[in-house]
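Retry 2 of 3 after timeout on previous attempt. Resubmitting structure tokens to design endpoint.
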């Protein structure tokens, strides 16, 4: 069995009330599952935001004027950049998860809310590792990897309900 990360630093911040949102422990578990066998040391941050902040970030960074479920910001630091105090390399990046969008999608797709958060955390973490879904072949490979990771966590196939990519 392949081991997970030996050093995993996941900072989780909540920019909205925490009621009904997953715990930081859950996010760390999901990130660890996504990284298992892929990377041994990592620092990353997850920020849970409201629709206003999610929309502003999506508009600024992607040119899309709506809140989306998860945004991934890969770390682009090199050895010449001084790291903030307390941050160790490698800095994988940041995930921004828009809680109202995740809740709405879970309701619309008849998914368990916690399972949807797990899926989007795994999905976003894979983006930070360089996975993408720009074409059908990449999408199929990424979705299959997500299914395998989520199955290890005891979570059903997130694509089975709607068959969407």
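Retry 2 succeeded. Sequence:
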């Amino acid at each position: 069995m392949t081991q997970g990360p030996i050093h995993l630093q996941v900072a989780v911040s909540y920019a909205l009330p925490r009621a009904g949102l997953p715990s930081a422990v859950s996010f760390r578990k999901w990130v660890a599952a996504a990284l298992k066998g892929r990377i041994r040391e990592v620092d990353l941050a997850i920020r849970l935001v409201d629709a206003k902040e999610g929309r502003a970030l999506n508009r600024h960074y992607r040119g899309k004027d709506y809140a989306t479920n998860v945004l991934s910001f890969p770390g682009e630091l090199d050895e010449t950049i001084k790291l903030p105090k307390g941050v160790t390399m490698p800095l994988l990046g940041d995930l921004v998860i828009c809680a109202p969008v995740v809740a709405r999608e879970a309701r619309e797709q008849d998914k368990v809310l916690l399972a949807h958060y797990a899926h989007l955390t795994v999905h976003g973490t894979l983006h930070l590792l360089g996975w993408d879904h720009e074409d059908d072949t990449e999408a199929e490979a990424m979705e299959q990897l997500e299914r395998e990771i989520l199955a290890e966590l005891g979570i059903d196939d997130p694509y089975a309900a709607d068959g969407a990519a």
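Attempt log closed. The domain at 7-153 is CATH 3.40.390.30 (Collagenase (Catalytic Domain)).
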